[in-house]
Design brief:
This is Homocysteine/selenocysteine methylase. Its cofactor is Zn(2+). Keywords: Metal-binding, Methyltransferase, Transferase, Zinc. The chain has 285 residues and is an alpha/beta fold. Helix content is 41%, strand content 16%.
Length: 285
């Protein structure tokens, strides 16, 4: 298994792709508000197999299926605890790679599109409280690091950064660069700096954005290893719950992201094992 602390300063490491996308491509129904978490609950073998497919394609880090699993959203707390821990176990069983436990934004738990705006109507303390228990369970579940991902606004970045204190586990911090929550000038740069200064954070960057957003977003990032795993170019319509637009080959741009300082590189929504294999070839070449 890869040692990220010693490897990231030396070379780029390949992340996996869109787990929900692959589960859907394998014939699973991800249309409910639980998204891929429903498969985690009802068919864990499918989750393990999807992780394994990305590993076979060249992923050196897999991100767990816990993105849309959290407390206080209609699932009994004991079941949430079980699912969070199961997500790490399944990723670990899929292959000898690093496991990053996914921590999605509050909007992902709500499944109402607010993960693209960060407009929750919650205070800093409320956000800290909503994230705290999930963070602690995942930090204790046996993952190698946390993947705090698709965070859409400065306030939530601040809340999560404060909650990392004392967890004793490394983390990557990835922001949703196309979110309207970062529309004001300098907002994304400030959020990246806040994330980089949080306890245990080893890399910061962007995900769940258009491929062409990556380089401008990373231009103002702090001087630590960076993260880049965008969508494949299509745009999510939260109203119709469909993807629109054309795809873009992520591997074509991956060497430019690495040249800009990205050391964790992969794909997000709509990316499949073939995309990760192409990224791995481009990055390692």
């Amino acid at each position: 298994m890869i040692d990220l602390a010693s490897t990231l300063p030396a070379r780029a490491v390949v992340l996996d792709g869109g787990l929900g996308t692959l589960l859907e491509a394998r014939g699973n129904d991800v249309s409910s508000s639980l998204w891929s978490a429903r498969i985690l609950r009802d068919d864990p073998d499918e989750v393990r197999a999807a992780h394994a497919a990305f590993i076979d394609a060249g992923a050196e880090v897999v991100i767990t299926s816990s993105y849309q699993v959290g407390f206080g959203v209609g699932i009994p707390d004991a079941d949430v605890d079980t699912l969070l821990r199961r997500s790490v176990t399944l990723a670990r069983e899929a292959g000898d790679v690093a496991v990053a436990a996914s921590v999605g934004p509050m909007g992902a738990l709500r499944a109402d599109g607010s993960e693209y705006t960060g407009e929750y109507g919650l205070t800093l303390e409320q956000l800290r409280d909503r994230h705290r228990r999930r963070l602690r369970v995942l930090a204790d579940a046996g993952a190698d690091l946390l993947a705090i991902e698709t965070i859409p606004a400065e306030l939530e970045v601040e809340a999560l950064s404060l909650e990392l204190e004392g967890l004793g586990i490394p983390a990557l911090f990835s922001l949703s660069a196309d979110s309207t929550g970062f529309a004001s000038a300098g907002s994304l740069d400030r959020a990246l700096r806040t994330a980089a200064s949080a306890p245990g954070v080893i890399a910061v960057g962007v995900n769940c954005c258009a491929p062409e957003t990556v380089l401008p977003a990373l231009a103002g990032a702090p001087g630590i290893p960076l993260v880049a795993y965008p969508n494949t170019g299509e745009r999510w319509d939260a109203t119709t719950r469909t993807w629109r637009g054309a795809t873009a080959p992520l591997a074509d741009a991956a060497p430019d992201w690495v040249a800009a300082g990205a050391r964790l590189v992969g794909g997000c929504c709509r990316s499949l094992p073939a995309d990760i294999a192409a990224i791995a070839a481009a990055v390692r070449g």
